[in-house]
Design goal:
Length: 91
């Protein structure tokens, strides 16, 4: 996994990192772009927020929030204001 952003704030004692502005996450053929990523290894949690765009070979998804629980492997994808997540796929 490669994570890049314009700014990052790393807390050495809690091992938490908040990435801000132009966040890009790459993993094999999966790409996520957003404005904010909160990463906590202590809580085993990642929160990706603000203008989230997920892309892979077949799919493009637009959302406001993605929350990944590393313990349970559960992922929650949502929009603010009860809007619907937009998913475009090609097969």
């Amino acid at each position: 996994i490669t994570i890049t952003s314009d700014f990052a704030d790393y807390n050495k004692s809690t091992v938490e990192t908040i990435f801000n502005k132009n966040v890009k996450i790459n993993y094999i053929n999966h790409k996520v772009e957003s404005e904010k990523l909160y990463l906590s290894f202590e809580d085993k949690l990642a929160k990706i927020n603000d203008n989230v765009v997920y892309k892979n070979e077949d799919t493009k998804m637009y959302a406001d929030n993605i929350e990944i629980d590393f313990k349970t492997k559960n992922t929650k994808i949502s929009m603010n204001n009860n809007e619907k997540v937009l998913i475009k796929s090609t097969y």
